[in-house]
Amino acid sequence: xDTLSYKTVSANRDTVKKEWxxxxxxxxxxxxxxxxxxxxLRGKHKPNFTPHVDCGDNVIVINAExxxxxxxxxxxxxxxxxxxxxxGQRTINVNAQMAKNPAVVVEKAVKGMLPKNRLGRELxxxxxxxxxxxxPHKAQKPKKINLNSxx
Length: 151
Known about the structure:
single chain; about 150 residues; alpha/beta; four-stranded parallel sheet; 5 helices
């Protein structure tokens, strides 16, 4: 039983091929968009996926201000933060956050879908969200993908 077909090949940092992917968020529903982006960041769409290795791609999300939310989430969904001081709990709803910085809404949604450990923090650094259709990563020649093609 020394044949190669019986050996499991695990990816490591040296054997992973990372690509740059461009995703257009225009008229996309936030949850469906971010679940696919998290899958691409994690590398679960690749055949050599290894759970403890960063084998995902770098993802650029453009037009973050044009996302959609279903129902009354624009008024009802609330982001909570705390300053660390007594009485320092701060809340902001999605509508106000979209007016302030729409990229944060997409970033928070994707970050919540990644692992909560060192690997998740490393994967989150591969996400680049921009308001508008311009981005500074043209030199990487990102490949534009259709979100419906990723399963």
